[in-house]
Amino acid sequence: MMPRTTLSLTAAAHAQLRAHLFPGDGKEAAAVLVCTQVPGPRIRLLVRDVIPVPHDSCTRRTDCSLTWPGSYIEQAIDAAEAENLGIVLLHSHPNGFPAFSTTDDESDREVMPCIFAAIDARHGSAVMLPTGLIFGRIYDRDGGHTSIDLVSVAGDDLHFWWRDDLATGICRPMAFTPDMTCELSRLTAVVIGISGTGSPTAEQLCRLGFGRVIGIDFDHVEHKNLNRILNTTFADAENGSTKVEVFAERANRYRSTPYFEGLAVNMMSRDAVMALAQGDVVFSCVDTHRARMIADRAGATFLLPLIDVGVGIPTRETAHGLAIAEVTGRIDYVYPGGSSLRDRGVYTPESLQAEALAEEDPVAHADRVKAGYIEGLPDQAPAVIALNMRAASAGVLEFIARAYPYRHEPNASYARTKFMLAEAFEEFTHEREFAPKPTRLLASGAAEPLLGLPILGQEDQ
């Protein structure tokens, strides 16, 4: 079943909490989480701030009980009240007990009404086990609660902890197995751009068994791109069908019930961002800097892992005319709190401005479109499907490696993968080689303006 409720953390927040909640003395410890929320039908809390309760402030700490001062809850309320944020009370079970105890239940019955009296938002409680696994519940004002279906942590590795894991004791699935397929059936992937690299990416995600795949692309099928967009036909080009409409019609035949949802909207729109926010992982398969910028900011805002795919064919002048200099593909894996696409120079303020100006100038825009895949060659129907599929496959495998690790080396070594086919060479860049800049967007959720961009303000709804 697809998760209805999710709690998401950065890898840094999770590591901080684990170190604090398990200091090595075998006794319980506590922290308070201040959470933003993702807009939309799915209830998804994002941990924005962590308030550790000092061990020596607790009046009682044993291996199965804990008493700590309410001043730390008051501190969290002060931090959350102005923005109407949620509060989650988190403590540890060093003995590994995989459920809320009767003492936990009694404590929540006493404390939750006080939190609701101060802030009318979504609040809850949670427990961390020594393995790092977190389970929890979200309360309503009447004292009822709903279990958190999924706790996700995005870092060099991707962690998904499910509520029903507690009852079954299931270990993480192994890559490429039916168990992996079973977990993917509960996750949502978002693909931005259903064209050259996007259609083979989406095709793989559908065949792998993702429970829901959201495709975002406002463009229409044309005759010139039939040679590189999967599942498109001559009739689709004749009819001017949207790329997502065509993909959805074919993909939803793979299963008994529809699961691919296509949105024919521009990425610079609120609708696109709202749809993206419902995902568990985002694949950026676009050819514009501004679309990449939106995906980059959304990953930080909604604590989503992002995989950005790009290809290129630089050329060189020879005595006999234009020749291929290289055939390249680039796959960047970006996690919230790590280096962004902007930090890595994939786009810059200058490139964003130049792109915006070019689109306002018909002549400049036409020149950019003519440039196409191959530098200096205004070919509208390049034969690049083999290159696109190589890059798309590498992007999907990057997700699998993060969620179901199979590499011999740590995933941090593969923040960027770049292949050069002319040289038959592949190079990898470690996350530490990029310098991340702090961002106020991290876990900002539904805060307005959305993604910190006034153009996505509520008035655009």
Automatic annotation (TrEMBL):
Protein name (database record): ThiF family adenylyltransferase
InterPro entries reported for this sequence: JAB_dom_prok, ThiF/MoeB/HesA, ThiF_NAD_FAD-bd, Ubiquitin-activating_enz
Keyword presence, Protease: yes
Coiled-coil regions, chain positions: none
Native source species: Ramlibacter pinisoli
GO MF term list: metal ion binding; metallopeptidase activity; tRNA threonylcarbamoyladenosine dehydratase; ubiquitin-like modifier activating enzyme activity
GO BP terms, alphabetized: cyclic threonylcarbamoyladenosine biosynthetic process; proteolysis
Pfam hit, one: ThiF
Keywords (A to Z) from UniProt: Hydrolase, Metal-binding, Metalloprotease, Protease, Zinc
Ranges of residues in domain JAB: 11-119
Residue ranges of every copy of the THIF-type NAD/FAD binding fold domain listed in the record: 179-311
Keyword Cell inner membrane listed: no
